[in-house]
Amino acid sequence: MERRRTLVAAVLIALTMVAIAPEVLAQSSRPKSGGTLVVGRPTDAISLDPNKATTAPEVWVYGNIFETLVTLDEKMQVRPALAERWERLNDKTLRFYLRKGVTFHDGTLFNAAAVKFTIERVINPKTPARGRSWLGPVTGANVVDEHTVDVITSSSFGPLLNHLTMVFVVGILSPDAVNKFGDDFGRNPVGTGPFRFEEWKSNQSITLVRNDRYWGPKAYLDRVVFRVIPEEGARMIAYDRGDIDLLLRAAPVEMERLRKDKKTQVSDTPGLRIIYVGLNSSIPPLDDVRVRRALSHAIDVRGINQYVVENAMLPARSVIAPMVFGYKDTRLPERYVYDVGLARKLLGEAGWTAGPDGTLRKAGKPMELTFWASEGRDLKDREVSEAVLAQLSKLGIKMNFVRMEWGAYLNALRVEKPPYNLFTLGWVTMTGDSDFGLYATFHSANVPPKGTQYQYYRNPEVDRLLDEARTSLDAPTRAAAYGKALEHITNDVSWIPIYQTKETVVLRSYVSGYVGHPAEYYLRLGPVWLDR
Amino acid sequence: MGRYVLKRLVWSVFVLLGVTLVIQATMSLVSGDPTVILLGETATMEQRAALRGELGLDRPFVVRYATYVTDVARGNLGRSYRSRRPILEEIRDAFPPTLKLSLVALLITVVIGLPAGVLSAVRANTATDRLVTAVSLLGLSVPVFLIGLLLIYLLAYRWQVFPVGGMDNGAASYVLPAVTLALTSIAVISRMTRASMLDVLGEDFIRTARAKGLAEAVVVNKHGLKAALVPVVTALALQVGLLIGGAVLTETVFSWPGIGRLMVTAIKTRDLLLVQGCVLVLAAGFVVINLLTDLSYTLLDPRIRHEASA
């Protein structure tokens, strides 16, 4: 009996050891320095000057070269970066106490003057920075002493801290380097980040090397090479062949295979962009909220996500993403379930009934909707629009479908009273604060050509709530105002959100330390190391 | 001869002027205000107006065109709207890769296309002829991206003989893109050579050569081929133009950092000056190649003489 008990114990101990062995092994491999990480992506950067180019192909690279006063961590919380702490002096002044002993890659000192220089470069009307409008009411910065700087706004501005996290707006630049290189700064970027710029071979690759004088934890990688491989198939083959360690914008159709591949890990992070169908409520028939509600019941959002987007993204639950400050789950999938019968009933209440030929008519006039769709901007944007088109046509609506290439599309939307009833677009709340996600897209002060509120949505109560949240400096007050505004917006059906992005990065299994970030632009390589 | 060249060069200036005019006019017709694309969708009206002023887009078309032509005459192609980089620099990076790739493709075309055409003509209407015809047709009709991806899959992935793309691997980098790029030209050139050879082989001077008792190889290669080359060289020159200007797809499939890709990006971002710079360089290349082609005729066929007064 005694012996038997010993045996059982021994077996149990052995089993436990086997079970915990992989954990122990994983913990035993400590991060190590060295090696080159090759990143594969579809497009080259236009410029590495944050004030000249602000899209993902640039920010993936210079997000590792430049830093901001404050930054957003992976949970979208504001954290100190080049500023150690901050305090509010009054409703228009925010004081930052800067980190000491930080140098730029060119050896010059990071100080309050550099912050002032950077902010003034963004707002200078003579050299308009791409991100100027993203700084809101910021009017300048004042140097208090070498390591203290005040950021000034013209009015009380609640989301200011979040705006200052955007490296593609206020990444702090070396004033010396900007003055030295002028327009060529975009080819010779100098910041304070964990990597510094080494080489750029146009349309081929950009190489960064570790900044050995970095103020924080030094990067592990010796080098990062961002390779450009425009063709999707060729990019996948380059990855499969082992030419690439980290793959951006992998083909959705390949994801199932990659997720099963033992030599691959896939990092999925819920993102901040919402792709939606906007409804123009300034002209009939979508000026009637019953018709707008009917349409939202007639579009099979879940089906589109499953079959058209191939589950690469997440079905939207609100007009903004869950990680954003001020988010409220407006339960879109439950509130606007796909129900063609209900859609018909609502349309009937609004006076639209189907004739013998199936066409919806009101007072003899058929329902006709002009639907604008962009192409080549967001994942499967054209296909999503085509699915919506098919579902609305099936309802008996005569659809005029207009498809446009992105450059032309953007321009066509920004005119006074464009003739569409519906349009497809995406919006990303880059700051992680609802002000960025709602003010420009639902406040009636921002209708075109001035702004980007393409639905011509007008609800004075929403305007009031958005204004209140924008100017208030009290977080709970702001969050409550956004919650109420979101409720109105959802009720009024100004957008029919289709999906929330998911940031998917494919890595070889030996790439360790990578943490995905909800903001689609951030690819932080400082903590990444190679376990091989 | 000297006067002929001079006359042609003067003409080319007008050709290039015409090209820039057409491009500038086309680009102003294309919808899409560069300032919206440059500043992003959230830019204010004031910002857009300021940038339009800075880029000179607020001036009338004629003024803009005149300024552009004067600048180009001084050797200044301007700066890219978007990257703010001198356009000459952008082109200096992107044109050599395209040119090198096109020349290698041209070499492959000549080495394979000419002999195939001659063989086809000499063995006209035999099984060999039909095989060459069939292969040519295949080369003409299969799209570049299909052939390109197939070659990548087989030779860069399955057997890993060549790199997937880019130009970091020296001579090996050129093989797959150049072969892909050359396929269409090989087809065109072999067909052209065959037709031209068949014409020439029926001429009197060939009969004379045969009557003199020359060996068939000498008749075909020396007397026949040389005379048959005139239309082939014209076709080749056109192919060079197509190779350089039409490499966009090949450059995309093989991650080749050429001028085709640069131009497509420029068009998408409405980078007017950059588009113009690229087209100007391509057009100039085309003009030069055509001139060289015309001059080469006299070397190939003694019956042709260029007269400045003609």
In CATH, the homologous superfamily of the largest domain in chain B goes by the name MetI-like
The helix fraction of chain B, in percent, is: over 70%
Number of helices of chain A: 17
Structural class of chain B: mainly alpha
Structural class of chain A: alpha+beta
Q: How many extended strands of chain B?
A: 0
Quick one: CATH class of the largest domain in chain B?
Mainly Alpha
CATH level-two architecture of the largest domain in chain B = Orthogonal Bundle
| Number of separate strands of chain A | 22
Radius of gyration of chain A: 26 Å
The greatest inter-chain interface is formed by: A-B, 50 and 53 residues
Largest sheet of chain B at a glance? Answer: none
Query: N- to C-terminal separation of chain A?
Result: 48 Å
- Helix amount of chain A, in percent? 25-40%
Report what the structure shows:
The complex is a heterodimer of chains A (532) and B (310). Chain A contains 17 helices and 22 strands. Chain A has 532 residues and is an alpha+beta fold. In chain A, the strands form 5 sheets. In chain A, strands 1, 8, 9, 10, 11, 12, 13, 17, 18, 19 and 20 form an 11-stranded mixed sheet that branches. The radius of gyration of chain A is 26 Å and the shape is globular. The two termini of chain A are 48 Å apart. The model of chain A is unreliable at 17-28 (pLDDT under 50). Chain B has 310 residues and is mainly α. Helices cover 77% and strands 0% of the residues of chain B. Chain B is built from 13 helices and no strands. The interface between A and B is large, with 50 and 53 residues.
In terms of topology, how is this protein built?
The complex is a heterodimer of chains A (532) and B (310).
Chain A: H1 2-28, E1 36-41, H2 56-62, E2 70-72, E3 78-80, E4 83-90, E5 93-98, H3 112-123, E6 138-145, E7 148-153, H4 160-163, H5 167-170, H6 175-181, E8 195-201, E9 205-210, E10 223-228, H7 232-241, E11 246-248, H8 255-260, E12 264-279, H9 289-298, H10 301-308, E13 314-315, H11 332-335, H12 340-349, E14 353-354, E15 360-362, E16 365-366, E17 368-375, H13 381-394, E18 398-405, H14 406-413, E19 422-428, H15 434-442, H16 460-471, H17 475-492, E20 495-508, E21 511-512, E22 529-530
Parallel strand pairs in A: 1-10, 1-11, 17-18, 17-19
Antiparallel strand pairs in A: 2-3, 4-5, 5-7, 6-7, 8-9, 9-10, 11-20, 12-19, 12-20, 13-20, 14-15, 15-16, 21-22
Helix pairs in contact in A: 9-12, 15-16, 16-17
Chain B: H1 2-29, H2 34-39, H3 45-55, H4 61-73, H5 87-122, H6 127-141, H7 144-158, H8 171-201, H9 204-211, H10 216-245, H11 248-253, H12 259-268, H13 272-300
Helix pairs in contact in B: 1-13, 5-6, 5-8, 5-10, 5-13, 6-8, 7-8, 8-10, 9-10, 10-13, 12-13
